[in-house]
Amino acid sequence: MTDHTAPTSSSSPGPGAAPRPATAHVGTALSGTARVPGDKSISHRALMLGALAVGTTRAEGLLEGEDVLATAAALRRMGVGITRDDNGVWLIEGVGVGGLHAPDDVLDLGNSGTAARLLCGLLAGHDFTAILTGDDSLRARPMGRVVAPLTEMGVQTASRDGGRMPLSITGTTDLLPIEYVLPVPSAQVKSAVLLAGLHAPGRTSVVEALATRDHTERMLAHMGAELEITDTVDGRRITITGQPELTPVEIQVPADPSSAAFPAVAAAIVPGSDIYLPAVGMNPARIGLFDTLVEMGADISRDNPRDAGGEPVADLHIRAGSLTGVIVPASRAPSMIDEYPVLAAAAACAAGTTVFEGVGELRVKESDRLAAVEAGLAACGVAVWTEEDRMVIQGCGGPPPGGGDIAANLDHRIAMSFMVLGLAAENPVTIDDVRTVETSFPGFIETMCGLGADISSDQTNDHTDGAP
Ligand code: S3P
């Protein structure tokens, strides 16, 4: 039995830690099969909901990236037994709804917005004080969006200006059930309210105008919670009845579609590529990128569609093709919110113009992703501009010039997206620091090099010249 008590790698860049640059070079076609790590959103939820069940939840295929390990460490600090057996199965000894203990130190959630926001919902129903913090990126992100509904329910908080962390949260065993209409389409805010509602007597509802990822609802239902989901004129209304006893379950975590996005786009834009990505999550609220790539002319098939513990999965087969620019409507944003940076790499190689509409939320992710994509594409010789919450990319109709130096700004998806772009560009693309890639896609460079990509990284000196 291995006890993972804390994040094990050093990717969360602490003060003074040395950056790890990487350079992606154009090389040969990508080929073969790559196993993409487990879904980050489902992994956080498996740990948190497993912690609230009565008995032992088993999770297979859990993402062992820093974000998820930060959630595990925080839950352990509040009395939850979490271990990993020799077969890689994670065992979560639940303490029951409302059964967490006060943590004896600050909860450091590293780079993870999902950990921070969902934990606020979990802490809401406990009458102790916890203090949450994170790395430079996470401490710059807005927490007011979860604090607002939780305050309505009776929770007390204190934070830096603008609702930024460090944040102290004092919950109550006397939570008020509410009905909350989401002001922004956010699965994290929806989940925080539902997790608080799980602890409140009576029925708590959340209404979302645009459907966001529903992993929390699926897993809660799977564990026996009473949920009612209806379509109303205002959108999807989810109602949870509080204070149930959750039953422990076996969770099979699918490969993360948001991580599969990187090799998938790389294979779509590197000429001659032909790759397989098995058992990728195909939840309809997560697959906007694949729909968009197909609209652009990409050759992607979804083989062997099946169910894995309440979540749809399929094996993806991606072959290179010529892409054409498209308009991506705002209504699709929640189903691909994390995939715009890598779609920008595809748009740079496409013929014609691609427009991302209604993407203002990208300004408050791990970095300001609109600014990072705009600066990065411009540095690689691609014409790009933003107009309020729209981004316009003029495709090169083939390999973009490349040659840029990219600032990743502690943002794993910016780092991976520009490594992907470098594989299809005329000149190498260098990213200043790729350590945060370990938060969501441990072994990304090795996985890509296994498919034949040519990515060199100063620290590991693992320049492969495309050899698998
Ligand atoms: C997530 C929801 C999304 C997404 C994030 C994971 C989740 O954030 O960007 O990476 O697991 O609920 P928002 O809820 O802020 O859109």
What does this structure look like?
The chain is an alpha/beta fold. It folds into two domains: 3-39 and 255-457, UDP-n-acetylglucosamine1-carboxyvinyl-transferase, Chain, CATH 3.65.10; 40-251, Enolpyruvate transferase domain (UDP-n-acetylglucosamine1-carboxyvinyl-transferase, Chain, Alpha-beta prism). Helix content is 28%, strand content 26%. The chain is built from 13 helices and 24 strands. The strands form six sheets. It has a four-stranded mixed sheet. Strands 2-15-17-16 form a four-stranded mixed sheet. Strands 4-5-3-14 form a four-stranded mixed sheet, covered by helices on one side. Strand 22 (405-406), helix 12 and strand 23 form a beta-alpha-beta unit. Helix 8 (257-269) packs parallel to helix 10. Bound molecules: shikimate-3-phosphate. Shikimate-3-phosphate (S3P) is lined by residues 41, 114, 186-188, 191, 213, 337-338.
